[in-house]
């Protein structure tokens, strides 16, 4: 059975292979290791194997890990779960990135509550498949939300994030990813700091990279399966 370091190396090799197959520049896709529900000891193993970007979904669980690993100052913490208003201050004060902004109310709170000297990096989550079970802004509302975020202090809009509808055909998945790529390119042409398309997980990473993803979110492929979790991340 592979350990975390070996699975991490295998995931990185898969990313590089998919990048080459898509005729993209090497190292143009970052790996975000999704460590939600996993113990600090697993994060430390990945860290010792060279991983620095970690994604968390649950605020309190993440804060405990961030506090425990405070001496690891080069870790970049990404919040990738649904964000409620009553938790926004904790996220604003402790994370480097938020991938799941889908309404201006949350963006304003994050801006007002950011006390760290560095700006908070944001991605807008897009509900590309109009899936009732997924969060995210509708495509029709993306431009107005992006414009509003650009005007807020303490934030830097870096790009877009999506989670496609589960259990769809590969053709449908590629169509969704292609739509996201088009939205990303359009946003990139209008805003100077747009450089991140957070798209693709353990099961669809190759297809996402083919469609321009610059950051894939991988959990089970690195840390192993999560009990009672049906959706692979």
Description:
The chain is of the alpha/beta class and 233 residues long. The chain has nine helices and eight strands. It has an eight-stranded parallel β-sheet. Helix 4 packs across helix 5. The radius of gyration is 17 Å and the shape is globular. The two termini are 20 Å apart.
Keywords:
alpha/beta; eight-stranded parallel beta sheet; 233 residues
Summarize the structure.
The chain is an alpha/beta fold and 233 residues long.
Task: Break the fold down into its secondary structure elements and pairings.
Layout: H1 4-21, E1 30-34, H2 40-48, E2 53-56, H3 59-68, E3 76-79, H4 88-94, E4 97-101, H5 104-113, E5 120-125, H6 142-150, E6 155-161, H7 170-190, E7 196-198, H8 205-210, E8 215-218, H9 220-223
Parallel strand pairs: 1-2, 1-8, 2-3, 3-4, 4-5, 5-6, 6-7
User: How many distinct helices?
Assistant: 9
Gap between N and C termini: 20 Å
Secondary structure class reads alpha/beta
Radius of gyration over all CA atoms, rounded: 17 Å
Instruction: Compute the average pLDDT.
Output: 95
Largest sheet: 8 strands, parallel
Q: Give the amount of beta strand, in percent.
A: 15-25%
Report the helical percentage. Answer: 40-55%
> What overall geometry do the principal axes of the alpha carbons give?
globular
What is the spatial order of strands in the main beta sheet?
7-6-5-4-3-2-1-8
Query: Secondary-structure element order, as H and E?
Result: HEHEHEHEHEHEHEHEH
Uncertain segments are: none
Count of strand segments: 8
